[in-house]
Description:
CATH topology of the largest domain: Nucleotidyltransferase, domain 5
Structural class: alpha+beta
Low-confidence stretches: none
Number of strands: 33
Shape: globular
Amino acid sequence: MTTELTIKNLLPTLTESKLQEMKYNISNTTFIGIDFGTSTTVVSIAAIQKNDIPIIVKSIEIEQKLIDGIYKSYLIPSAIAYFNGKILVGQGAADLRFKLRDSKNFWHSFKMQLGEDVGCHYPESELGKDSSIKILTAQEATKLFFKFVKDKIDQFVKQNNLPSHIEYAVSIPASFEANQRKDLINCLEANNIQINKQSLIDEPNAAFLSYVLESNLNNQIIKIPENTYPNILVFDFGAGTCDISILEIGQDNKGVYSKNIAISKFEKLGGNDIDKLIAIDVLLPQLLNNSGFTIENFKTRELNENIIPKLLKTAEKLKVQICNSVALQKGQKALPEIAKSSDCVSLGTVIEIDTKKGTLILENPKISIKQFAEIISLFTKTNSLLPTKRIEGDNEFVSIFNPINSALKKSKLKKEQIDYVLFIGGSSKNPFIQKAVMEYFNESEYLIPNDFQSHVSAGSAIHSLIYNGFNKNIIQPITSEPIILITTDNKTEIIDFVFEAGCQIPSELTVKNNLFPQFDGQKIIEIPVCIGNKNKILYNLKLYSPDDNGFKKSEPIKLQAEINADKLLLIRATAANKAVMVEPINPFANKDLTTNDRIKHLAEKEFRLSCARNGGEPTYEALNALHNAYEKIGLHFKAAETLEQISELFPKNANYNNIGLYYIGILNHLYE
Length: 672
């Protein structure tokens, strides 16, 4: 017997009395879903009709101030600007991207920096320590952004005479780890956006719920034959993340079910990376050639912090235009033939960038289809999963098949066992990306929604209604990576698994009672908690002795760990039956770090903090400390550039002989 995949069938059967109780709660509540995107945020509202199903979902149009008026759209650019003494959020901020400077008076992509302990993300910020409103960290930018979103939601609810009691669900990448989720929850709660347990929903799962509802409304319902268990791979490729989730659907004695069986490893990979590679490989050479310079004329820092960021919006517009052009040609030519075309798209605009060498000018920036296809080929390579690097290794670009293979490996499925591929996220509309995924999963059926950008928000609103209204969670979340403790025994490193990948959330309590201090009187114990492997730190746990005498070497420390419904890792500790204060310190970065990487990130953290304390300007002491760190770990090019910066800002402390020796050493290394 075949069963249909619908929202109603996914909901467990409720008794009539329970249903009436839920209906009363629903009638007195407004259910909101927020898709907090790297580049764009969308807010949706969900309600239930008199016949219970289908649920109706609508994106909310949000008023956004421009410099010279008001703009209204359901798409809210996740951006903040400070201009002429005023703070603009959304489209008004995005419109100023060309005029302002990243991290100084324009902030974006702050979502991807949550969970990082870098001290100060924006040391040059004009909203610094002396401002009434501060934006020195990604957390502060996120809080300010959600203040704007919350105010607009409250305004919408009041204007439409909706119930003032609001229940929220917020979608985030499935691969976001506990440190990133913790920072986000803190930012939400700081704005009185209270979320219940499991009100955070993984973006691919939200997309799945939205697609189920959409297919129901469009009469394109997925059929589940008896005794079959189809696998759906959700390919969620947005501006900042490429999130892969694999779900199994089927029937059991309770009816139709859906469950997560694997989630990809977190990667900083998204459509923004395509923009950046276009800027570096295509627009930057055009800009420099047109202005009579070469890349060697500019320091890495100026390229990365001033020049390349001002090419990104142009790169994004060219990307969109060329994708539209290719999509129109697909009806007449095969994609491989189109990919060889030297036809160009251009904007007909002029780019002007002020630098220390003068003003760089590029008229009529352009890109050919062939160039674009070559750019995309670096993101769709399957023969090597090593990242593509540019500009002294500061920029790394990862293939979409890194997260795809990560999810497949954890699911223990072969690609031929994927029955459906659901495309989600604005970047998955890219015809070259779609072709690569379709060719890889050549035996699957492809599911493509009507609106890529509002889909996740709609699913979040559905989740808000079902979870907050009916107290039901259609898809039980799981962990994406194993969580491990790193301890030592007589200087021997011990790796101890706490939770395996795919652990169902909320987890059961895990107890570790075989940990001992290294010596009597030790007052602070540090334990790295890692994700996936020892090179990627989730938290650095600090355990503080409950009394002034410190820990005793003979008394074991007991750790109790669990992952709650929002995938937050909670750890409690006791020693000699006394509670121990546990402080989780965020890592320097949300990626694997070698020992040298950690030295580099710590030095750069201290440098940024010093700059922030000095009004955004570096001191000689801070630059010298940074130079010494680069020298220690063999980053000779960065060490040389830092010495050059010292010579420019502090000529009395310059050592031109050392600068020359560094560059000679770099050249000798290149020709070895």
